[in-house]
From TrEMBL:
SUPFAM superfamilies, A to Z: DNA/RNA polymerases (SSF56672), His-Me finger endonucleases (SSF54060), Ribonuclease H-like (SSF53098)
Taxonomy, superkingdom: Eukaryota
Protein name: DNA-directed DNA polymerase
Length: 504
């Protein structure tokens, strides 16, 4: 059972952000604000940034054509966007960046006309959905003159929301790790990737020191007066109540070094430094992610909300696949019926091995037994790397069904199949398959279906001898009727002893 417990009331006292542009002329130093009405000021600052950015984007820079661009144009045979050959009707043109003026590639005229700068301006916040969104949404009603749209995750959390042309997205939806871990991973690749951190802290010694996530006494700072403290709080004051953890000696030493190296005078100034670090580190980490994505897929994560959406576009772009839409309602229901979800089981919770390798507990007079731990990792990723259906969905004719030999179908063949079959589960297999029966089904479990052990659990845990009328996906040893199954699963079932009585 899940629940929400009120832990503490969070009152923001500062914010920081870093403006990032493809043209470094338009970059700015990080903006740090500490004072009253933090959320309102944060939104107001961003709306001012929006005005500046829209003004920049409204100006079209003239083309900057290099000698390389001239040669590229002369010898280009196909569009760098759609990869199609040029023609007299769809001729080649120089496609250039309207912000920088540089030539991005030689495209066909059709693609050139379709490439546009999006109207929205992404605002990237790490763990937006889990934390910052609640603070922003609590004050968003004060900006009634702005169009506000949301993409909710549930009643409490938002996947994304927009204020005017500002689209707030969560970097944690793409980079599912803490900023500390992401920073460490990027630092392992070299200091050259930290462009914004080096600009924010140009002193080489300070820059090298700050190539990691900072530490801050969040629980200690419960009043504004504590920000005026002229010294770093004690190590004990860095205790995190929510996580019930202390910081390490190494982390506290790092905080002391930052305080001394940057000549910090108050805890408020230390907070500003900490925030500058966070903003610069997130900018560098996410820009590196964008660089990789643009290089590998020609796609910008800032145009997406989550990794699945980004991955879907990458798949379509890389494979060139055109997905057919199933328009036959019977066919769609047929496929849906074969999607069953996860298996429900009652597991044996405790087992004890007894074999000669267990020197301390081995009992020679007892039966020998072993425990085997089996775990299959990344099943979803594995399944997505198999041959997947994309089109030409058709019902088989009676003649095609007669000619088809299910067992001889190839796993990597050009055609795949979904069957509706009647399956016999021979009684000779019941003993060997009882731990994990094949071909699970959605069933409403009756009390008479339960084993004596399960009945005992039901009585002990609920005091009842009845079950809720909810269908569960359960492995069982019954024969199956009109069972819808993918052909590769069906081949496995037959190989392991099940018998096909009828297929339709």
């Amino acid at each position: 059972m899940s629940s929400t417990t009120t832990y503490q009331q969070m009152e923001p006292y500062s914010f920081g952000y870093q403006r990032v542009s493809i043209d470094k002329r338009y970059d700015k130093p990080p903006v740090i604000y500490r004072g009253p009405d933090v959320v309102e000021n944060f939104i107001s600052h961003l709306l001012e940034e929006e005005k500046e950015i829209r003004d920049i984007l409204s100006r079209i820079e003239p083309m900057i054509i290099t000698e390389y661009d001239k040669l590229d144009y002369k010898y280009a045979k196909k569009c760098y966007v759609c990869k199609k050959a040029f023609s007299s009707k769809n001729y080649k043109v120089k496609e250039h960046d309207h912000v920088t003026g540089s030539i991005r590639g030689i495209s066909c005229n059709n693609c050139n006309l379709q490439i546009k700068i999006p109207k929205f301006i992404p605002v990237v916040i790490h763990n937006l959905k889990g934390f910052d969104a609640n603070l922003i949404m609590s004050k968003i009603g004060k900006f009634k003159e702005q169009d506000i749209t949301v993409i909710p995750h549930n009643k409490e959390k938002y996947m994304s929301f927009s204020i005017g042309n500002l689209r707030f997205i969560d970097s944690l939806q793409f980079l599912n790790s803490s900023l500390a871990t992401l920073t460490k991973n990027l630092a392992d690749e070299g200091q050259k990737h930290f462009n914004y951190l080096s600009k924010t802290f140009p002193d080489p010694d300070v820059f090298s020191l700050l190539l990691r996530k900072g530490v801050f006494p969040y629980d200690y700072v419960d009043t504004e007066q504590k920000l005026e403290k002229p010294c770093l709080p004690s190590k004990e004051d860095f205790f995190n109540k929510l996580g019930d953890t202390h910081i390490s000696d190494e982390d506290y030493q790092f905080a002391q070094t930052v305080w001394d190296k940057l000549k910090v005078k108050t805890l408020g100034e230390y907070s500003d430094v900490y925030l500058k670090m966070d903003v610069a580190l997130l900018a560098d980490v996410f820009e590196k992610f964008r660089d990789i994505s643009l290089h590998d897929y020609d796609l910008d994560p800032c145009h997406y909300f989550t990794t699945p959406g980004f991955s879907w576009s990458a798949m379509l772009k890389k494979t060139g696949i055109v997905l057919d839409l199933i328009t036959d309602i019977d066919m769609m229901l047929f496929v849906e019926k074969g999607i069953r979800g996860g298996v429900s089981s009652i597991f044996h919770r405790y087992a004890k091995a007894n074999n000669p390798y267990l020197f301390d507990t081995y009992e020679p007079t007892e039966p020998t037994s072993y425990l085997s731990y089996l775990d299959a990792n990344n099943l979803y990723g594995w399944s997505m790397s198999q041959c997947l259906p994309y089109g030409h969905f058709n019902w088989l004719t009676e003649e095609e069904k007669i000619k088809l030999d299910i067992i001889k179908l190839k796993a990597d063949g050009s055609d795949g199949y979904i069957f509706e079959v009647d399956l016999e589960y021979p009684t000779s297999l019941h003993s060997s398959h009882s731990d994990f029966p094949l071909a699970p089904e959605r069933k409403h479990i009756q009390v008479e279906h339960l084993s004596p052990y399960s009945k005992e659990l039901l009585q002990n845990l609920t005091g009842k001898q009845c079950l809720t009328k909810i269908e569960k996906l359960v492995p069982n040893l019954y024969d199956k009727e009109k069972y819808i199954v993918h052909y590769r699963n069906l081949q496995l079932y037959v190989e392991l002893g099940l018998k096909i009585q009828k297929d339709t």
